[in-house]
Amino acid sequence: MAECLQKLLAIRGAKPLCAVVDHLRSWIGSILHELDIPAIGFFTSGACSAAMEHAMWKAGSADLGEIGNESRLLPGLPDHMAVTGSDLKRRPFGHSESELPKPHMGRRRKGPPAPGDQPHWFQEMDGFAQYLYNTCHELEAPFIEYLNEAFGKPVRAVGPLLPDKYWKSTRMGSTFRDQEVRVKRETNVKEEEVIEWLDCKPAGSVLYVSFGSEVGPTIEEYSELAEALEASNRPFIWTIQNPEQGFYPHGLQERVGKKRGLIIHGWAPQLLILSHPSTAAFLSHCGWNSTVEAIGCGIPILAWPIRGDQYHNAKLVVKHWAAGEFVTDDFSKSVNKNDIARGIEDIMGQEEVKKNARAISVKLENGFPVTSTDALNAFRDSILRAANS
Fold it and tell me: When you count CB atoms within 10 A of the terminal residue's CB, does the N or C end of the chain come out lower?
């Protein structure tokens, strides 16, 4: 890697003022140090997950292990983000026997730290000059402030980094068209069909279900989800991967009928669905991008985290924003039909949660946050000052 960078620099002639490095590739920092190039850490996730990982590490895995049914405050973080026994009950990182592992290319990244363990990125990024986060003060102010103290170096919230047309749609209150900004991948439903389906539904009546393209429940849990959706009698859109990549809900579409349920295999126009007035709630794994896209549209979240930062994002949604519910109280066990059915009714019926989600979206309705624009400008100015000093 170092040799490749040296060759690239030789071709360029001029050394870059800095290099922005994804925190999942933080090991590159040591190479940049050898080349005397300032490294800037970039977190594609939010500030809450990093702050929680760091605070839990400082609390110590031994102390956390003694929590039991009590809770433990984390110094520097809001009281409602205290660690509870249920926070520590997670299934091991990795695939269960019923999950289908996907092929992996390139250097394998490290898995997320166990609760109380040191985050691998903290040590690897110790020599970095600054840190950028894909978030904004309007969403995560206390967690950004915590990280500023923890790092002792500038931590800048420069997001959420979403398409410019997304921010324009939030200002106009219009439905977003994904096909205008995102490459459409394989799917069984056209975007126009999704719009027509949603247009036929009452306002605030549809449950949207999606776990993204990288992680998901076990095959057994998918079956439980299919049964819960069928029994709910509520209109829903369910996005799942193509049949050859995992679970296929045999017969569900025929049993519920396309009028009530729309099952999308492969790519789905998520921003369109979330921004449509018929959508009421989002059953999500709480990946950061999905979380921000939903809350930016004022959509409450039924949180079903699978691994890593998703657990912290889910807690941010439920405890800090009060804009969602957990699908279960114990993520160490398989989620069953009753958990899901109860969660669906809770998230669809709780007006206070819906109100809170809408209130947060109002903070973003004027477009890309001014605080993030200021942070980007401050970052640029600091790099130029360092280069000229």
Answer: C
How far is Cα of residue 290 from the mean position of the Cα atoms in its chain? 5
CB 207 within 8 A of CB 280: yes
Amino acid (one-letter) located at 141:
A
Neighbours of 142 (CB within 10 A): 16
For 220, the token pair is: 């057994």
Terminal CA-to-CA distance of the chain, rounded, Å?
29
Q: Kindly indicate the confidence band of residue 228, based on its pLDDT and cuts at 50, 70 and 90.
A: very high
Per-residue pLDDT tens over the stretch 340-387: 999 999 999 999 999 999 999 999 888 899 999 999 999 999 999 999
The Cα 325–Cα 312 span in angstroms is 13
**Residue-range domain boundaries for the chain:** 41-159+369-384, 175-362
pTM for the whole structure: 0.90
CB 160 within 8 A of CB 296: yes
Instruction: Convert the pLDDT of each residue in 28-71 to its tens digit.
Output: 888 898 889 999 999 999 999 999 999 999 887 656 666 767 88
DSSP 82-119: -EEGGGG--PPSS--TTS-PPP--SSPPPPPPPTTSPP
Identify the CA nearest to 40 among candidates 386, 371, 354. Answer: 386
Average pLDDT, the chain: 87
> 116 - beta bridge partners?
none
Report in angstroms the alpha-carbon separations of 260 from 61, 184, 226, 254: 47, 25, 13, 10
- The residues that bridge with 284 in the sheet, in sequence order, are 210, 303
Q: Which residues pair with 301 in a beta bridge?
A: 282, 324
| Contact in structure between 225 and 247 (CB atoms under 8 Å) | no
What is the distance, to the nearest Å, from the Cα of residue 321 to the centroid of all Cα atoms in its chain?
14
Per the structure block, which two tokens stand in for 216?
């998901």
Assign residue 367 a region (left: φ > 0; alpha: ψ between -120 and 50; beta: otherwise).
left
3-state helix, strand, coil in the chain (%, to 5): 45, 15, 40
Residue with structure tokens 């939903």? 294
CATH code for the part of the protein at 175-362: 3.40.50.2000
